[in-house]
């Protein structure tokens, strides 16, 4: 389905706070915020094996936790876990892929603890009318430097390049690790689920264009903010593009059959869906409809939709 998946349980936080090595320049610290939208939790990525490191997506604090603010496996908070993982090294930069509350709020206390600048995506404070209480926007995000597409941040033995990927949010960035061919994909591409695209900030046309942009790259592996690493990026992205096009065709068939409102489309298109996830599925259907409207394929009358003549 388009928003999230409930085919697997969202695991407990037994590994939260532990630092795991994924390749010589890449380690992961898992935040203790598992949920239907975050899977095992937000994955904070540490880049660098020398004198300094970069921290990507420092994660949530307090109300950004989907299950409160629990301790991790070591009995402390997520920022403390990051500090343990970088002990002995300087934090050169704190990078955020986007400003949902399960990604960027911990940048502030981490900056206070280390003095490192916050860089990456642009600030965005938007009233989100979608269903994702765990991922509302972070209105207090204040970067020291905003990265444009192709701009770089470098440290001892590592270089990260910003790859603009709007769609999930308008300010979403991925970060390419030049030395190893890895791409940190935030919420844009995940192996366990497709991403929520929730208007008004989420934009399906932009999301599809960003997927195509990644498909044309030659990244070796993806490290998303939620779920496992992606060992075959092109294969996954090709499938995601096809899946979204299939959803669009389903919506057009629903309209052909006289189904006019989003809740009815969701009930027909997402059989057996966990009721907790119907709102998120509806947001993605709405994003498709708005894209179709912009292309002149459908018409809107209040909450009702129809095929264009």
TrEMBL record:
InterPro entries: LACTB2_WH, Metallo-B-lactamas, RibonucZ/Hydroxyglut_hydro, Sec-metab_biosynth-thioest, WH-like_DNA-bd_sf. CDD domains: metallo-hydrolase-like_MBL-fold. It comes from the Bacteria. Keywords: Hydrolase. GO terms for molecular function: hydroxyacylglutathione hydrolase activity. Residues 41-226 form the Metallo-beta-lactamase domain. The keyword Hydrolase applies. SMART domains: Lactamase_B (SM00849). Its EC number is 3.1.2.6. PANTHER family: ENDORIBONUCLEASE LACTB2. This is Beta-lactamase-like protein. It comes from Sphingopyxis granuli.
């Amino acid at each position: 389905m388009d928003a999230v998946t409930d085919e697997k349980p969202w695991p407990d936080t037994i590994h939260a706070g532990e630092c795991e090595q994924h390749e010589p320049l890449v380690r992961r610290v898992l935040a203790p915020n598992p949920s239907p939208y975050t899977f095992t939790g937000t994955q904070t990525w540490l880049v660098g094996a020398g004198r300094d490191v970069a921290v990507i997506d420092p994660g949530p604090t307090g109300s950004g936790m989907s299950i409160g603010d629990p301790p991790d496996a070591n009995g402390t908070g997520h920022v403390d876990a990051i500090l343990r993982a970088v002990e002995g090294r300087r934090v050169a930069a704190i990078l955020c892929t986007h400003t949902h509350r399960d990604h960027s709020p911990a940048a502030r206390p981490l900056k206070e603890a280390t003095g490192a600048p916050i860089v990456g995506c642009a600030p965005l404070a938007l009233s989100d009318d979608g269903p994702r209480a765990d991922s509302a926007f972070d209105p207090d995000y204040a970067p020291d430097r905003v990265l444009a597409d192709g701009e770089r941040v470098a440290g001892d033995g590592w270089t990260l390049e910003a790859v603009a990927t709007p769609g999930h949010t308008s300010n979403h960035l991925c970060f390419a690790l030049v030395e190893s061919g890895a791409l940190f994909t935030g919420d844009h591409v995940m192996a366990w689920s497709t991403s929520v695209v929730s208007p008004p900030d989420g934009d399906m046309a932009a999301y599809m264009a960003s997927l195509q942009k990644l498909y044309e790259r030659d990244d070796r592996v993806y490290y998303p903010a939620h779920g496992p690493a992606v060992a075959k990026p092109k294969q996954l992205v090709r499938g995601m593009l096809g899946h979204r096009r299939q959803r669009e065709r389903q919506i057009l068939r629903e309209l052909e059959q006289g189904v006019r409102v989003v809740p009815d489309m969701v009930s027909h298109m997402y059989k057996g869906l966990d009721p907790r996830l119907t709102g998120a599925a509806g947001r993605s259907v709405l994003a498709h409809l708005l894209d179709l409207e912009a292309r002149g394929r459908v018409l809107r009358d209040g909450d009702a939709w129809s095929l264009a003549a």
